[in-house]
Amino acid sequence: MSALGDFIRARRKILGLTQTALAIRMGVDDTYVSAVETGKRTPDGEQFLELMSTALELPEDLSRLLAAAARKSQRIFRLPAEISARKHEVLQALAMDTGLTDDDMAAFAAMHSALAARGRCVGQTEDSNFSQGGPM
To answer: Which of 13, 31, 52, 83 is at 20 to 30 A from 103, Cα to Cα?
Structure first.
């Protein structure tokens, strides 16, 4: 489950809606609502969030929380075009490596933090090997 899925499910339950009823309100298939709730799919952008906000009868403050949950749950990220081919290759390999464990990721995060502690900062050139430090 994702932050977005948790948010949608909780609000849907408050309103007493099934996934099917919510899907009908949105004009989408109930399998799509189920996939978003379980974190198997990410929503198709701003239009989805507007439809979901309306279907869940969200006031403005809760609509902002819905959008924040969607951002937090986003599983796709885009790399800036200006990064080096090597950096892109390494990041893509990490992202696609299904064998990495939480412990492996903690080790990468620790290395990244250690590099940041050595004084690297945003705006350094590509020659400095990495751009910004801090927890991953």
So the answer is: 83
